[in-house]
Structures are given as structure tokens and as C-alpha cells.
Design brief:
Length: 417
């Protein structure tokens, strides 16, 4: 179902010390009669209906749910729950189409806002509602406008357990999307990003309530074109001392991935992969210095295999890098892969912005983003970072709305292969 294209950022210059390189793995869907309809989908939306959702946010969320039902295919199924102090399941196993909407319109219209934000209960409901089914893609969407709370309404300071739960969902093949609705100052962007990253999904920012519907419709379109919901790669070093340091999915959008640990099964879980666009993965690799007298030229250092299941046929290839003693040859950089490396770094910097309160570190991260954006030709992102750096110097603070907008902009910046 996939063809592999492998490319390194630059040749390997032999010397006394290990060297760092980036391997780009491009997964190219094999056209099968031009069909890109994707797997049947089970979609569940957990909608925050706490008291802060009262008004336009809740009304626009209702409209977005109606639009999602209309866009669902007959083979898809939809579930919806309202969560606040408790979880109230509203719809389950609903097929798509106008007929379904007409039959449940009263349930959607009756949703009201009250109570606190029990994100833990929402995650529990998503896990129960989307059990594993062979040949079926599963996607959960958690929409919120505020911080997760305990039963008394106090904001949770420790969210590690919730992030770990999201990781379990992702490891089980479910894709988790999180939506921050309204101004970012009222919710925890870092937490929502951590949830979606560990759940192998994406974070969506609907700063204006009316933008929620198009965001969800676009996300549903993506989910309806999945070739597999849980693609796994086997990355096997072919030489002693070859070490995988870090991994990410860059396209269609950025997603941090856990690198295989030394001594364990060399599995890289890439998550859901679309049938209609290429998927690019980046792998940071440390290569050992060659043995004395070892011949130069192409050296196979890593085996890459798509682990097949019922929906994805296996494919395998060997990543060969050119070894040279020439400094000039070693500087012949693959411009595309090097630009992708910078894009990866920029995404790391933008996420780090939400995990620091140190103004000096924040300033350095913004400067790094500006530099990487300029080098990759993303002038609008570079300008956003420069403006935020100026504001930081004036006020000593980072604006939550702008920082969240910057994160979503950097993560979508690597769209074109």
C-alpha cells in the first residue's frame, strides 16, 4: 500500500567522532484504482458544556456537530457526549446523513452549559466509546474552552495522569484531537497539545467560535481518507553504534514521535496515515566513526520496513548514506531534507514556548523560530515571531493568543512535500 523514498540531509564525513544526520522517510500511497475514500470511521466528540461555554461558543459548537453529522458517510458512525461535572452521552453509533440529523436534532438543541470541566471523565468516555475494531479507523475529538478541573472546580495542577491516558489511546490505535475554543488565555495550550501529541492526533485552535465548524469539517475530511489508523515502522540499525536519537512526523502536519529505545523492538509508531497524500517522517540518527581502513562510498546503516497489517502491505528498504573524507563533499547538503530538519527544529521551539516561564529562554526560542522560519521561506511565521519578540521585550510576557497561533502556524508550515 506504500512505497518508500529515503533521503539523508548530507553525506557522512569519516573522522574520529560520531556524527549526527537526519533521514527523511517518505511514505507514498500506492494508487489502487484511484480510490482514496479511506477506512470506515468511528468518530466521537466530547463537548465541554461547563458554565464558561454559555452563549455563542456553545451555539457554534452545536452547529459544528450538526455539520459533522451531515458530512459523515453511511459507513461511518458518530457519537457525542456533553461533559462538565459529569458526562452525558447523547448520541452513539449514529450513521451519517440528513436522516440521522433530523432524528437527533432535539438532543443537540437541548444541550445547556453548567458545571465544571472534568476532562478526565471525557477521556474515560472516549476510551469506552471507541473500542478497537479491525478495519475501522477511530478518532476522538475533545473540545474545551477552559482548564481541566477537579470535582470541586479547581484547576488541575497535575495533569500527567491525563496525558498518560491519552498516550494509551494513541498506542491502542485511536487518534485524539483536542480543540482549544475561544481565547487561549483561558485554557492550557501546553496541556491540550500534550494530549493530542500523545494521542497521535493534532491540536486545533478555534480562537473565534465561528471557526470551529470549518476546523472540524477539515479534520473529518482527513479522517475519512485514512489508509491505516496505526502505521508502524521497523527501524533496524545495520552497523554497530548506529543510534536513533529522535523522530517526528512532519507531513501532512507535525507530530512528535517516540524513538525506539536501544535494546527494545525497533518499532516506530507513526499513527494514522492518509491514502491521498505523502507522509514524511524524520529520524535523527547518530553514526559511529568508521573502522580504520573501511572503504568509503555508500554505506547501508539503517533498515526501514513498514510493518504490514490487514490494511497496510509491508514494504522494506535500506537507507544508504555516502561516506567521504572530503570536507567539501560532506557539505553538499540535500536542500529539501535540510529545510525539513529546520522545520522540525522550529516546531520543537514553538512547543517549548508553552513550557517555560523564563523570559530569557522565551526570547531565545522566539529568535530561533524567526531564524528557522526565514531559512525555510516562511516569512509570515518569521514576522509573527519577530513581533512577539518585540512585545516580550516591552512587556516581559508572552501573549497566550499569539503564542498559540504561532504554534499552529509552525505545525502546518511543512504541508507541501
Amino acid at each position: 500500500m506504500f512505497d518508500l523514498e529515503l533521503a539523508w540531509d548530507r553525506p557522512y564525513r569519516s573522522g574520529p567522532a560520531p556524527t549526527q544526520h537526519v533521514l527523511r522517510i517518505r511514505l507514498l500511497p500506492q494508487a489502487e484504482g484511484g480510490a482514496t475514500s479511506g477506512m470506515p470511521l468511528r468518530l466521537a466528540i466530547a463537548l465541554d458544556t461547563s458554565s464558561s461555554m454559555q452563549g455563542e461558543k456553545l451555539e457554534q459548537a452545536k452547529e459544528a456537530c450538526r455539520a459533522v453529522i451531515l458530512q459523515m458517510r453511511p459507513e461511518d458512525r458518530f457519537a457525542l457526549a456533553a461533559y462538565s461535572t459529569q458526562v452525558e452521552p447523547l448520541l452513539e453509533g449514529l450513521p451519517g446523513g440528513i436522516g440521522s440529523l433530523a432524528s437527533v436534532e432535539h438532543k443537540i438543541a437541548s444541550i445547556e452549559a453548567a458545571g465544571v470541566t472534568r476532562t478526565d471523565l471525557a477521556l474515560d468516555w472516549l476510551e469506552r466509546t471507541l473500542p478497537s475494531e479491525p478495519g475501522i479507523a477511530r478518532a476522538g475529538i475533545l473540545i474545551t474552552d477552559g482548564h481541566p478541573t477537579d470535582p470541586r472546580g479547581a484547576a488541575l495542577e497535575a495533569t500527567d495522569a491525563l496525558v498518560a491516558q491519552a498516550a494509551r489511546l494513541g498506542q491502542a490505535g485511536m487518534t485524539l484531537y483536542t480543540v482549544g475554543l475561544g481565547t487561549a488565555a483561558h485554557f492550557n495550550t501546553a496541556f491540550l497539545v500534550d494530549l493530542s501529541d500523545r494521542g497521535h492526533g493534532a491540536f486545533l485552535y478555534a480562537d473565534e467560535p465561528q471557526t470551529l465548524e470549518p476546523l472540524l469539517r477539515a479534520r473529518l475530511t482527513t479522517a475519512q481518507t485514512l489508509a491505516t489508523d496505526d502505521l508502524r515502522l521497523l527501524l533496524r540499525p545495520l552497523l554497530p553504534g548506529v543510534t536513533i536519537k529522535a523522530c517526528c512526523r512532519l507531513r501532512p502536519e507535525h507530530l512528535p514521535l517516540d524513538a525506539p529505545l536501544p535494546g527494545e523492538a525497533p518499532v516506530l509508531q507513526a499513527g494514522a496515515v492518509q491514502a491521498d497524500v505523502p507522509t514524511d517522517l524524520l529520524v535523527a540518527v547518530t553514526l559511529p566513526p568508521p573502522d580504520f581502513g573501511e572503504p568509503l562510498g555508500p554505506r547501508e546503516v539503517l533498515s526501514v520496513e513498514v510493518a504490514g497489517d490487514e490494511t497496510a502491505a509491508s514494504a522494506a528498504s535500506r537507507a544508504a548514506i555516502t561516506a567521504t573524507t572530503s570536507y567539501t563533499e560532506a557539505q553538499q547538503v540535500n536542500a529539501e531534507v535540510d529545510r525539513d530538519r529546520l522545520q522540525w527544529e522550529m516546531n520543537v521551539y514553538s512547543q517549548a514556548l508553552h513550557h517555560t516561564r523564563d523570559p530569557r529562554k522565551t526570547a531565545q526560542l522566539l529568535a530561533d523560530i524567526q531564524y528557522a522560519a526565514s531559512k525555510t521561506g516562511q516569512e509570515s511565521v518569521a514576522q509573527m515571531a519577530a513581533q512577539q519578540l518585540q512585545d516580550l521585550k516591552k512587556t516581559g510576557m508572552l501573549d497566550a493568543h499569539r503564542a498559540t497561533g504561532l504554534l499552529t502556524s509552525t505545525r502546518s508550515g511543512g504541508l507541501q512535500p
